[in-house]
């Protein structure tokens, strides 16, 4: 197990390096730079700016300096567009917000999805089952950028219950719509996955044995069926986690929540290379880490798996 | 015992005719698919949406880039959906006909979905089949590459590509195609591994068929079921990706449009009471998503050999 974790982390390093090199090469190839403006800067000023940010160095040296800064000082460099800000500051501003609504949405999707799917499977072919299946099919075609305007329309414009945008760590009414918009379609997918795998497990031998021993049904479901039924759900958690972060791009723009999604799109439009790269690398690292956690969880739940 | 001689004769004639044709697995699958009501409904809905995309312009009285100056500035009242002035779906906030724009958006979205899935099918199938069939070190290297590419946050890279190289259809296709084949490659490789030790492949190898021909003639045709199922599930995924990008304003450029761009516009203006701008594109988007999901599910049920 430990060996497996170390091997996985060893793969993560070339992945992140590849990401860095890829971004640098892209930037190098792309026409225009962070200092390209409508009115061209005098050549001397441009040369000085490029020299200050090291953009006149050869490509390999730029990459080396960047990697060195990140690894040794955990420093993602200065922002090219906002001279008084560093990338670390920008990330530190936005990331807590994204993390808050992202993890809430993740929890909501998993708990509600699993509960709904389990209920549907236990009441197979009952009205509860049909209701759950209907709701989850309906919700699956409502991705975050479709849910967001619908929620605002209903809860802000018609019912006037919730604020239509903005963010406050102390007032949970700002959290509701981002969390719901972000989680709905994944909640639906998780419910469908749980339902079908639960149905399969409930028909298996060990469940029949447990029932034959006279175990109460809720214990059968919760103790004996839920654990194996979770396996397909767990392998779906990686993609869900990634979508929570990429979804923040839409959430931040639509609800003006000010997370890293907003910082990323702004930096992309301003060609603020350092910020773009810092966020891309952060997201890449988080993705790798989370996928590793998912695999460990998988092995913990399914004792048949050996690494 | 009364036997109708005419019936006997017709029976005899039929029996004397061609031998009873056997049922191929594909015919079986077709039959199972036809019996699945949800899937057939989905297929019908998709056919209608495709028809709308292809022939909608015949009914449009306005082009998708024409401004109607008589509704401009008073879109909330004069721009409502109406049969009288030819704006069946109303107009957008610039006075452009929403019907024509929805037709245009449907075309682009379907095109992106189908081309994106097409790239994934071709690239993913070839990559996966070659990796799976070769095995050994080649397989290791190829699949590690896929692993590494998969842990790149692709939406961010796609946004980077579009921002740096300018928004264009080519870039969009390239960016979407770049990432869409990874899952397909994994699935195909898994299937190939289980195929390649079967007797008919062994037989082909024994009589000296070269590897590329075995892959092309024997492996790939046997993968088509899985590939078809996954491809139908990929199309809505591609449409979603494009809509997501267009929602952010990074997708296709005006005067072209797509569902995502239309939904974004509608969402931006719904505060002024012009709900139809959101409702019509959203309707087509949701209906198409439903259609593809149901057809995909139906295909999976029909083609899954475990389910016989």
UniProtKB/TrEMBL annotation, chain A:
Protein origin, superkingdom: Bacteria
Gene that produces this protein: oppB
Transmembrane segments: 9-30, 99-122, 142-161, 173-191, 233-255, 275-301
Gene3D superfamilies: MetI-like
Cross-referenced PANTHER family: INNER MEMBRANE ABC TRANSPORTER (PTHR30465), OLIGOPEPTIDE TRANSPORT SYSTEM PERMEASE PROTEIN OPPB (PTHR30465:SF74)
Signal peptide range in chain numbering: none
Protein name (Swiss-Prot/TrEMBL): Oligopeptide ABC transporter permease OppB
Family annotation (InterPro entries): BPD_transp_1_N, MetI-like, MetI-like_sf
Compartment list: Cell membrane
Membrane topology value: Multi-pass membrane protein
Assigned keywords, A-Z: Cell membrane, Membrane, Transmembrane, Transmembrane helix, Transport
Pfam families attached to this UniProt entry: BPD_transp_1, BPD_transp_1_N
Residue ranges of every copy of the ABC transmembrane type-1 domain listed in the record: 95-294
Family in the record: Belongs to the binding-protein-dependent transport system permease family.
Automatic annotation (TrEMBL), chain B:
PROSITE patterns, sorted: ABC_TM1 (PS50928)
Gene source species: Paracoccus fontiphilus
Keyword Membrane assigned: yes
Protein name: Oligopeptide transport system permease protein OppC
Family assignment from sequence similarity: Belongs to the binding-protein-dependent transport system permease family. OppBC subfamily.
Pfam name, any one: OppC_N
Listed Gene3D superfamilies: MetI-like (1.10.3720.10)
Stretches assigned to the ABC transmembrane type-1 domain: 106-293
Entry's transmembrane regions: 38-60, 108-133, 145-165, 171-188, 223-250, 278-299
Keywords from the named record: Cell inner membrane, Cell membrane, Membrane, Peptide transport, Protein transport, Transmembrane, Transmembrane helix, Transport
Membrane topology: Multi-pass membrane protein
Chief site of localization: membrane
Subcellular location: Cell inner membrane; Cell membrane
InterPro entries hit by this protein: BP-dependent_transpt_permease (IPR050366), MetI-like (IPR000515), MetI-like_sf (IPR035906), OppC_N (IPR025966)
